[in-house]
Amino acid sequence: MVLAARLVLAAVFGVAGIAKLLDREGLPRAIASFGLPARTEKPLGYLLISYEFVTALALIVNPWARIGALGALGLLLTFCLAIVVSIARGRTPDCHCFGGLRATPVGWATLARNGLLAATAGFVATDGRAPWFFTGLGTIAATCWVVLGLKRSGKVRPGMVTPGFEPFRVR
């Protein structure tokens, strides 16, 4: 189970790094839209891409997997903090988490997705100890991600009756 989690995380960080590398114009704009100084755009972009590649590689190589998971966890928590600060300031900059592949505005669904990935990284970092804890965190984050993603897409609206169920009516 830990190996599968390592490979999933490695794939996520590898794809994110490649996509950011190919999105040379979008990444600096995304960094600036989070409110960071313009002079940091390029250096932070290269640092982020390098960090993601090193993390992906470390997750694949057995002796480094724990360090890679801790790196992934640190980066994901940093992203979560940046998202929360942006939302608190009333801003929803484009995420560019996966470069130009999927540049969407950050929001609670982005935070939930990162929470799911952070729970997975925590599971790997502890070498599979306390699986009930990380499974619980992951389940909560995954549920929030799906519900918020559906809500964002307009497929779920407040007061909408769930298909296949009749609302309870008192007679």
Compact overview of the structure:
This protein has helices at 2-22, 26-33, 41-60, 65-88, 108-125, 131-153. The protein is mainly alpha-helical and 171 residues long.
Question: Keyphrases for this structure?
Answer:
171 residues; mainly alpha; 67% helix; 0% strand; globular; disordered C terminus
Structure description:
By secondary structure, this protein is an all-alpha fold. It has helices at residues 2-22, 26-33, 41-60, 65-88, 108-125, 131-153. It has one domain (2-153). The protein starts with a helix and ends in an 18-residue tail after the last helix. The relative contact order is 0.13. Residues 164-169 have low confidence and may be disordered.
What is the H/E string?
HHHHHH
Task: Outline the low-pLDDT stretches.
Answer: 164-169
Count of the domains: 1
- The number of E-state strands comes to 0
First-residue to last-residue Cα separation: 51 Å
Strand content: under 5%
Q: Which structural class best describes the helix and strand composition?
A: mainly alpha
